[in-house]
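Risk register update: the risk of archive-format incompatibility is retired. Evidence:
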Amino acid sequence: MIRRMIFGVLHVLFATAGAMAQTTRVRGQVTDDDGNPLSFVSVVFPGTTVGITTDEQGIYSLETRDTVSCVQASMVGYATATKPVTQGIFNRVDFRLRSVEFGIGQVVITPGENPAFPILDGVIRNRSRNDPDRHESYHCRTYTKMELDLTNIRPEFRNRRLQRNFGFIFNYMDTSALTGQAYLPAMIAESTADLYRSRRPEFKREVIRASRVSGVNNNIAVAQFTGGMHGDVNFYDNYIALFNSRFASPLSESGRAFYNYFLVDSTLHEGRKIYKIRFHPKRLATPVLDGEVNIDSASYALESATARMPRGTNVNWVRHLVLECENQRLPDGRWFRARDRVSAEFSISDADSSKITSFLGTREVIYSDPQIGQPIPDEILRMDNNVVVEEQEPGNVSEAYWETIRPYRLTDRERQIYRMVDSVKQVPLYRNIYTVINTILGGFWNTKYIGVGPYHKLLSFNDAEGLRMQVGLRTTPAVSRTVRLGGYVAYGTRDEHFKGGGMLELAFNRRLTRKLTFAARHDLIQLGAGHNLLTENSIFTSILSRGDQRLSIVDRGEATYEHEWRQGISTTIGMRMQHIHGNRYVPMIQPGQGPIRAINDATVQVGIRLSKNEAVYRQPFDKKYLGSPYPVVTLTFVAGLPNVLPGSREYYALVGDLRYRVNLPPIGYSKISIQGGHIFGQVPYPLLKLHEGNGTYFYDPHTYSCMNYYEFASDTWVSWFWEHHFNGLLLGRLPLIKRLKWREVLVCKGVWGTLSNRNNGALNNTEAPLLFPMGMSTVRDPYVEAGFGVENIFRIFRVDCLWRLTHRQPEPGIKARNFAVNLGIQIKF
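Archived output:
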């Protein structure tokens, strides 16, 4: 889970990084004569359409590449004020408006409807005509610029060693209008692409024609994330999905339940009347925004919007967030995107006064040449991925080429920043820092050619081995991007035996996975455990062990080939042979004949995995699935091969798995996993479905917290795992508690299964190949456990309390746990 969340964080960082340099940036506060903040003050660059109204603290920020020389603040009842700005840099401009008196006639105030409501109703009525994503089909060109910066840099950051290594970079520091803090560019990326989309059939594909990155090495990986991100921020949607959170849109059909609206102004733009509506959240229990929308009075189309995440919103690691969009009216009267921008500051601390250095990511997408209603070319439909990175032509890497495709020209300072960011990678201190961070995130300490790890398996302990010491090595992509070798050796101080394993991976394709893997191991394995990353031989689960360990020595060799036909459809075929040893923890006794030393098993298996619109982070040998808005289905067929190994049996198994995250805003989201299967034939109990117990205090969402290892087995079964995350909906309303930003979770897990007589080793005069260990039985009566949890404790911990609802009376030889407390570690927004 931790690695999955870490790659999710990387995905968000890449997906929100952008263009920030060398604009004219202004930030400040507007107050009255007494120094009190003024809300709803209109602040603009005179002579342009760039403007905004102040928030509840009187704060505003503006950016533009237009030629400007001053900024102006105005509000009814106050004298308009204008102050100069210096073009091309950051300006701090505060206003203190002077109140003015003017005479008016008698005013009669009568109750009535909020004047903003009819305008918002018009937006909803005309959404199908004005929302670009609701056009039947379209094609456009996009230019994306991303930037990732180091921000909140204090003077003490510039110590002698940093000055010696990085002194030259401090000449490129600038100040952010988002935070008012200085920043240093760390990564800059540009790409130009063709974007295709249709509604029926649902289809979205981006073909990246050219891309370049400064500051990181993996240009292909970053290029994947510059694509597929357009249109993620759509104010016409009911909810805006960012950082695994769903922010209520101010243009939502249920927006009045989340926001208070104020019609603050109307202006003229290109001869058309534009309504300016300010919105403020009613409460912060669910993710909400604060800002303004500008609505075209004739068509009720969204002309532009600016919104920021208010302080106190229950979203982790994001201290500041600003969303901006501009739409353009086409000659035929329809509306289309012109510019989208997302800016976010990522930090460990929520406090603006924190001295912790943080990251600032910005992404800007500019749309051009929209063509609506034209059919999508066949060659685009035939492409495999939703994001296709085309091979760049030699001329597409030159600076002259980029000057022709950019919607604006870079200044000399911006060109120098590109060179500076690339230079940082050559500094030894930078490479050392990068190595440490990469080790924490990836688990391996990578030298140029060899990786050592994973670090959480270097030391662990269990009843059978005592203290277990393990060291593993694998080659890095610097050796080969198509061949990877790996292996490990482990030694236990109690059993005084060496264990180990090896692996050979052959990667034949980078865009779609085509990989052949050979693996072999001789090791102690907990059969019937979950598949969590930290489950097996980890220092974390050793510390949190309940003492319920029933390990088996397994000799296993396998070969697997994965073939990804297109994004979302992949198949696997493989063969496995294993020798499972019995011991006093896992005895193997034949009915009427006594104990045997081991059993053999040889199988071939074929699987298929189906998903839709799933985000995938790809590396040369590994890929991480980052989630899909649709169910992900896996089907596996296994065939046992008789007599390939001495005593190996013929049997067949069919297993299906469905996993689905259901978003249910504003009440959070549910994570559902359903698995079912059937084993045809007669097998010894280690080859049955051993339902996943949990022998630790560590929380695993796909194991049963109150179930012991080897407690239940089936040859026909259906299991389910359900969690509902309320995201602080309830705890966020409680005084004092809401300041902790805790989030509540409901959990329910269960399994129902049966055993045929030929496999039930618990029966008298059984026909099964092996007698069951004492206490193991069936779940003909369903096993169910349920409980609740609190997550986001200090933003990384989770505590769950679960109760066993059925099978509360233990079988002979089993000490049932009717209540369990689990601790989890998770990194999430």
